[in-house]
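Example: Glycine zipper 2TM domain-containing protein.
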Amino acid sequence: MKNVAIVGALLAVFALPASPAGAVGCFTGGIAGGVAGHYAGHHGFLGAVGGCLAGHALHKKQMAERRLRHQQEMHPARPAPAGPAQQP
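Written out as structure tokens, the predicted fold is:
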């Protein structure tokens, strides 16, 4: 009976449409978290969920930094205009 539930859950997961952008970071984080959770007391599922969340957040942060760096390279800061000339 347990095998039937596992197969049913896997079919439901794979039947859902998934966008590649939503899974970025989640896949690798989920694998690492699942393995760590398994070795830390047989909590592989909880580790996978936590790893997925952490991996997605890390990827989101890295993409924001990359976007900012790219924007700064494309539009370098201009020097501030000089103030009014001082008269003697």
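The radius of gyration is 24 Å.
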